[in-house]
């Protein structure tokens, strides 16, 4: 199966070159010496341009996502692990068990092969932990200066459990709003690494696959109305999307919102709202109120859901506002973030 | 969180609010204005209006430096950014402020100009050091809080003989803003009444509280310099109510953990070294105000982007339907504006008050628009 060549790739000092994406021997060498052994599975090993899977008669869920995070490596994760977890989670939020993933890479000429290997091995590890297989892929290389190290696209397919159909337009007045843990960890972990911000923190990204937690949630509450992972735009964006899609409002209880004290402090210092900060390993679930207690118990039993909390209720509101009931008794609107989130200037 | 939660204690806040309720004279109204965007934000963020008696009214003055810059200043920045070999360094808030013909720095960047968001003027200085082939212009905005940092950067640039660093200086002064409000009010035959001012805590940490004695005396105005937490603000409101009830018009400091009478002498010396007052400066909403803004002193003129790049300020009229002017003067509240929440939102701001997160309309949009009957 291999085209024999003299020299193996130098993963210590070598760099990605344009030829690695050219479709010739160098591309084959990268596939053989890096991707195949790392992702290692029967479907990938056929070396076809497509993966052919046998699927049972069922509902399938499919989701795709691009990953362009900077820096590539950050406390608690890297772009590779994120590319697996992110897509696993997007598939899982439909109530499906993710099975297969595709991985496409856009590499920038000059990226150290050492870094690429670290990213690919991290993807492989994340996929193995999650029990999904990376079954097809692609690699392109762009000239130096035309990319930012590496961009990754992953697409995932999963099969949905029969009778389960959560969807963002299903929230109903009276439902409980539950979040699976502390908010804003990923955003602050990334921000702490950005040039020019310069603050030190022990916060690590919450980057994780949530499908097992979703499975136990569904087992407890098959009629979960809606699930979503609050990534970009944070909890604020996710709840506003659900409120808008379902034609309802929400009232959250400020003191019930779970935060890591370090995330709270960093946000305070930088003038940011942790409810607008991205998460990569948290889910929001809207469930019938009488199921809330059991759902919380199920989430608390999962290591990723220990700080799960009931944070509010769905209410009737023709304006579809997500409101926060403050500790003082006053309420405020929790809005989508406009533009990019930026620290205060005066 | 240490040193923040203490100032957000619910039972203490309620106790102060109760005291305010007892001390107010039910036979009169109290109109208090804050002139710092941070205060506006905190008032909305913590729903503090709900805690106050109905006859205590909070109005929001020209407290956000992004909001008070007129359209012509954005046009100037865009013109600078599109000069050959220029890199414009700016705070992120300026990126989406609409200039003439809906042009923004964001759009100018997308069209190819080298515009970079920085978090501090020192980052801009670093961009200049690292890119000797670029002419790096820092878009300096803000009140007396950000001016010392600009002064420091200019002193450093001068020491390093950095030839490719420039400053587009639009620093403005807070007492002038207060004067401007009263001048505008007089021009409108006293349309509004302001009984007291919640003074800007961060500015006063630099300038000292005595800095405000003249302006307070000029307008016989009770003023309390306040911190930014809910308890700070409630205590400041209580102090103002007491002053008003006693017929006093003094400058008092609630934010004593940061503000002294004299302020930060070193920062003030740096500002005196680097800046001089402009003869006049055009403010959004308030118009031309004499000696209300800073420019670079003659010794630093070689860093003055306006002079070096020869791009002059040209006045542009605001959208007549926008109520920013009335809002900046405290005559109207954001929810009174007919554009608010309809054509004017944070995504598509018409007026400056909606652009910056610290602007009054933006604060209302973010935190308080549910108070309107139908706005969304």
Distance between the termini of chain A: 63 Å
By DSSP, the count of extended strands of chain B is 13
CATH class designation of the largest domain in chain A: Alpha Beta
Net shape of chain B: globular
Q: Which residues of chain A form runs of ≥5 with pLDDT under 50? A: 342-346
- Mean pLDDT of chain A, as a whole number? 91
Order of helices and strands of chain B: HEHEHHEHEHEHEHEHHEHEHEEEEHHHH
Reading the helices and strands of chain A in chain order gives HHEEEHEHEEEHHEHEHEHEEE
Principal-axes shape call of chain A: globular
| CATH homology superfamily of the largest domain in chain A | PurM-like C-terminal domain
N-to-C CA distance of chain B: 34 Å
Class inferred from helices and paired strands of chain A? alpha+beta
Q: What is the β-strand count of chain A?
A: 13
Mean of all residue-level pLDDT scores of chain B: 90
Helix content of chain B: 25-40%
- Spans of chain B of 5+ residues with little confidence (pLDDT < 50)? none
Account of the 3D structure:
Chain A is 29% helix and 22% strand. Chain A is of the alpha+beta class and 346 residues long. Chain A folds into two domains: 18-160, 60s Ribosomal Protein L30, Chain: A, CATH 3.30.1330.10; 168-333, PurM-like C-terminal domain (Phosphoribosyl-aminoimidazole Synthetase, Chain A, domain 2, Alpha-Beta Complex). Chain A starts with 24 loop residues before the first helix and ends in a 13-residue tail after the last strand. The model of chain A is unreliable at 342-346 (pLDDT under 50). Chain B is of the alpha/beta class. Chain B folds into three domains: 5-59 and 174-244, Rossmann fold; 71-171 and 293-308, 3-Layer(aba) Sandwich (Rossmann fold); 328-368, no CATH class. Chain B has 16 helices and 13 strands. Chain B has helices at 10-23, 37-45, 65-68, 71-81, 105-110, 121-130, 147-159, 174-187, 201-207, 213-218, 230-246, 265-274, 305-308, 324-328, 352-355, 360-367; strands spanning 30-34, 56-60, 86-90, 114-117, 135-140, 165-169, 196-200, 223-226, 251-253, 275-277, 280-283, 287-290, 294-296. Chain B has a five-stranded parallel β-sheet with strand order 2-1-7-8-9. In chain B, α2 (37-45) packs parallel to α16. The two termini of chain B are 34 Å apart. The chains are: A alpha+beta (346), B alpha/beta (376). At the A-B interface, α8 and β13 of A face α1, α2 and α16 of B.
């Amino acid at each position: 199966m291999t085209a024999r060549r003299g020299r193996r790739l130098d993963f210590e000092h070598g760099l990605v070159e344009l030829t690695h994406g050219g479709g010739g021997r160098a591309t084959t060498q990268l596939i053989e010496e890096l991707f195949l052994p790392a992702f290692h599975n029967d479907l990938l090993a056929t070396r076809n341009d497509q993966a052919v899977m046998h699927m049972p008669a069922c509902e399938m869920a499919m989701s795709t996502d691009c990953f362009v995070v900077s820096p590539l490596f950050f406390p608690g994760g890297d772009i590779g692990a994120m590319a697996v977890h992110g897509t696993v989670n997007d598939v899982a939020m439909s109530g499906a068990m993710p099975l297969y993933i595709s991985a496409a890479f856009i590499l920038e000429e000059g990226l150290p092969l050492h870094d690429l290997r670290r990213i690919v091995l991290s993807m492989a590890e994340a996929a193995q932990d999650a029990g999904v297989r990376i079954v097809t892929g692609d690699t392109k290389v762009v000239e130096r200066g035309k990319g930012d190290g590496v961009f990754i696209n992953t697409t995932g397919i999963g099969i949905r459990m029969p009778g389960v159909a959560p969807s963002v337009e299903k929230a109903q007045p009276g439902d409980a709003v539950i979040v699976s843990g502390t908010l804003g960890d990923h955003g602050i972990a990334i921000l702490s690494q950005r040039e020019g911000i310069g603050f030190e923190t022990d916060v690590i990204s919450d980057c994780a696959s949530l499908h097992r937690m979703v499975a136990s949630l569904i087992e407890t509450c098959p009629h979960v109305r809606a699930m979503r992972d609050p990534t970009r735009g944070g909890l604020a964006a996710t709840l506003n999307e659900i409120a808008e899609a379902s034609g309802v409002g929400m009232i959250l209880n400020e003191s019930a919102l779970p935060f890591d004290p370090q995330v709270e402090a960093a946000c305070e210092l930088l003038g940011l709202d942790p409810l607008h900060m991205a998460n990569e390993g948290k889910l929001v679930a809207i469930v019938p109120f009488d199921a809330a207690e059991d759902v919380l118990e199920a989430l608390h039993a999962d290591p990723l859901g220990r700080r799960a909390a009931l944070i509010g209720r769905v209410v009737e509101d023709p304006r579809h506002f997500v409101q926060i009931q403050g500790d003082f008794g006053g309420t405020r609107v929790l809005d989508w973030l406009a533009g990019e989130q930026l620290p205060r200037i005066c | 969180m240490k040193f923040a939660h203490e100032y957000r204690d619910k039972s203490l806040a309620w106790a102060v609010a109760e005291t305010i309720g007892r001390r107010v004279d039910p036979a009169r109204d109290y109109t208090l204005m804050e002139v710092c965007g941070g205060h506006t934000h905190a008032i909305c963020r913590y729903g503090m209006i709900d805690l106050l008696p109905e006859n205590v009214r909070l109005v929001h003055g020209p407290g956000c430096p992004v909001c008070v810059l007129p359209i012509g200043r954005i046009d100037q920045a865009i013109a600078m950014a599109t000069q050959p070999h220029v890199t414009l360094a700016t705070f992120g808030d300026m990126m989406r402020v609409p200039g003439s013909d809906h042009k923004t720095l964001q759009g100018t960047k997308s069209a190819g100009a080298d515009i970079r968001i920085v978090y501090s003027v020192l980052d801009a200085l670093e961009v200049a050091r690292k890119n000797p082939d670029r002419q790096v212009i820092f878009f300096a905005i803000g009140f007396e809080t950000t001016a010392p940092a600009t002064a420091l950067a200019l002193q450093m640039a001068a020491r390093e003989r950095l030839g490719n660093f420039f400053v587009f200086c639009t620093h403005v002064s807070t007492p002038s803003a207060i004067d401007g409000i009263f001048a505008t009010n007089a021009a409108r035959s006293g349309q509004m009444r302001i009984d007291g001012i919640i003074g800007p805590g961060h500015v006063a940490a630099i300038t000292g509280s005595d800095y405000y004695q003249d302006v307070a005396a000029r307008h016989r105005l009770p003023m309390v310099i306040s911190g930014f937490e809910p308890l700070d603000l409630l205590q400041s409101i209580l102090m103002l109510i007491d002053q008003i009830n006693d017929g006093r018009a003094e400058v008092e400091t609630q934010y004593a953990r940061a503000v002294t009478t004299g302020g930060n002498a070193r920062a003030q010396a740096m500002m005196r070294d680097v800046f001089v007052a402009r003869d006049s400066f055009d403010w959004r909403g308030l118009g031309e105000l004499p000696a209300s803004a800073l420019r670079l002193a003659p010794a630093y003129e070689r860093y003055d982007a306006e002079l070096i790049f020869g791009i002059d300020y040209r006045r542009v009229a605001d959208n007549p339907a926008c109520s920013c002017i009335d809002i900046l003067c405290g005559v109207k509240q954001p929810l009174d504006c007919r554009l608010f929440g309809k054509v004017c939102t944070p995504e598509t701001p018409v007026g400056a008050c909606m652009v910056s997160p610290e602007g009054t309309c933006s604060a209302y949009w973010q935190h308080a628009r549910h108070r309107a009957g139908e706005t969304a």
